[in-house]
Amino acid sequence: MAEVRVSTRDVQQFDGDALAIGLFSGETALQGPAAALDEALAGVIAGLVASGEVTGDADEITLLHTLGKIEPARVAIVGLGKRDKFTVDRVRRAASQACRALRGAGAKHVGLALAWAESGVNLALAARAATEGALLGLYEFTSYKNNGANGQNGKPKKAIETITVLGKGREPALRAAVERGRILAESTNFARDLGNEPPNTLTPTELGERARRMAAEVGLECEIHDKAWIHKQEMGALLAVNQGSAEEPRFIVLRYNGGSKRAPALALVGKGITFDSGGLSLKPSDGMAGMKTDMCGGATVLGAMRAIALLKPAISVVGIVPATENMPSGSAYHPGDILRASNGKTVEINNTDAEGRLALADGISYAVKHGCSPIVDAATLTGAIGVALGRSRAGLFSNDEDITRMVEQAAAASGERVWPMPMDDEYDQLIHSDIADMKQTGGRLAGSITAAKVLSNFAGDTPWAHLDIAYTAVRESRDVEGEAGATGYGVRLFSELASLLAGRKGE
Questions:
Q1: What is the pTM (predicted TM-score) of this model?
Q2: Is 158 a catalytic residue?
Q3: Could you give the CA distance from residue 162 to residue 412 in angstroms, rounded to a whole number?
Q4: Cross-strand pairs, 253
Q5: Phi-psi region for residue 179, left (φ > 0), alpha (ψ -120 to 50) or beta?
Q6: Helix (H) or strand (E) segment spanning residue 408
Q7: Count of beta carbons in the 10 Å neighbourhood of residue 225
Q8: What is the per-residue pLDDT for 167?
Q9: Which of 175, 212, 283, 340 is catalytic?
Q10: Which helix (H) or strand (E) is 454 found in, with range?
Q11: Dist. CA 281–CA 273, nearest whole Å
């Protein structure tokens, strides 16, 4: 992964082989780094703007060859859109676009000068966002491609080696912001690696081993519990999902002890279904193809715990990942079964393809039993959330207004957006069962809400929030921000939430 540096020198003094600058749309007068570079390049940029070839519209990329006039051989001009709509999120996106374009052009040492004081964006936040965008945008999953790390067809692989964030703010503040951005991006990419692994490799056992290795590297306490332990805990919901699979389940617990021993720990719970066939309620083949990513909620928790361990907020955090496959076999659980979770509550099964809420039921119950508060879970839980919100936002469900606000603040700070969904009492009727404490699903209507309602039964009175990330966890095709595959959505959000709660506890 590229090394990220900070420089407060003038942009003309950058000595790498490529520079990225930003331009706002609808403005003819160049400012900041664009104006300084235009002077060094004898008015080329101003000429392109005057001719309309460069507009500054959002997502526009123009590559210039400097022909020896300055040290960098290339300049990427990135359109930032309207100045009055410019945000830190736009910095993140622009950095991703610029680095991807410059890597394609063969650059190795890139300078980023995408925001300046006149933009109204806090420079430290912009430096952090630029770091995140660059490292997230450059991510590739090549573990299973022959010569993937070294290029193909005898040609060396194009790779950026260093990224220098250029800014005029206080250097210590910029360095701290860039370091935070690096940790968050690398932890997100760790989660993406897990989500992109094939299911024949990333079994529940292997997921536990990856968690163990990561925990040892960053100093987290780690417990990887096997099937015998899960039986002893009477986790009947998780065990039922597992019983159709030849692969054993794992119950992963990571602990970061950064707060007072008297204060309850924040619990992060992630759905870890390493492959979901649908069980006896078998998915159609098209719906099954991408189900290796049904553990992305668990990957989010592991990535967030990595980031939290390195960022060291003054709060204790427990990461919990119930991990299993959901497979059809002669021993698989059935529609019509009644299961008993570890908190004693019973669930009537009407669709074995709604297994995630069962695994989470025992994960959330574990967090409640151990006194954690608040509890926040992430899961690729329902297709219904995509119908409601598309791929731009995760659904946010909660039993507590305060934790809802905190999650919304963390989402805004991280750029990983959410949308609060209703949890009115009327929806409880949809999961009413005549023969158990609840039904596993509530039917076609309000599918994401009734799934959250099931989970709320296991949180009880503990402040709890649920993120349905079914359509934000995976990018279907390559775009300007990154490659197709797992996105690592939620790692930055959960890390921000831990920091926000740490700040509140310290007040």
A1: 0.96
A2: no
A3: 28
A4: 223, 320
A5: alpha
A6: helix 401-414
A7: 18
A8: 86
A9: 283
A10: helix 447-459
A11: 16
DSSP secondary structure string for all residues of 78-126: EE---GGG--HHHHHHHHHHHHHHHHHTT-SEEEEE---GGG-S-HHHH
DSSP string, 466-483: EEE-TTTSEESS-BTTB-
Could you give the C-alpha distances from 488 to 5, 192, 193, in angstroms and in order? 24, 5, 9
The answer to whether residues 497 and 266 touch, using CB atoms and an 8 Å cutoff, is yes
**Structural domains of the chain ordered from first start:** 3-166 (3.40.220.10), 193-505 (3.40.630.10)
Active site residue 227: no
pLDDT digits (tens, 9 = 90+) for 109-147: 999 998 766 678 899 999 999 999 999 999 999 999 887
Task: Name the active-site residue from 182, 271, 357, 492.
Answer: 357
Separation of CA 221 from chain center:
22
At 321 the pLDDT is: 99
pLDDT greater than 70 at residue 151: no
Beta strands in 109-188 (DSSP E): 109-113, 162-166
- Whats the size of the chain, residue-wise? 507
The 10s digit of each residue's pLDDT in 334-386 is 999 999 999 999 999 999 999 999 999 999 999 999 999 999 999 999 999 99
Name the residue type at position 120: G
